[in-house]
Amino acid sequence: MSGSSEEPKRDLTIELGDKQDNGSYEPPRQAPMAPPATSVTNSPPISILAYCGSSILMTVTNKIVLTGTFNLNFFLLAVQSIVCIVAIQTLKLMGIAQFRDFNTDEARKWFPISLLLIGMIYTGSK
Length: 126
What we know:
Blueprint: E1 18-19, E2 25-26, H1 44-66, H2 73-93, H3 104-124
Antiparallel strand pairs: 1-2
């Protein structure tokens, strides 16, 4: 064993472009960039419609379920929350939705508002 570790040689190329008659090179031509495609993630009307649709769906579901003899209000709230979290995370992984990652500091700041929302939903179902 020689003790030296040899790295494989890599060939690097630099495209200079077309050589001119005077010996200089013309820079290579690049294809023109296409305008950015419109996407669902940057569409305010789609975001508004998705919010309205999910809000109406949850309200109707709550009214239908809670008008009977269903007594597990917190269970229903937990299931709805878990389904929403899974759906939104799935949309983020698919690249359809974009949002910041979870931040514990922000969660602490928003916790009182979340608690009040849960209380409002619970007392409204009684």
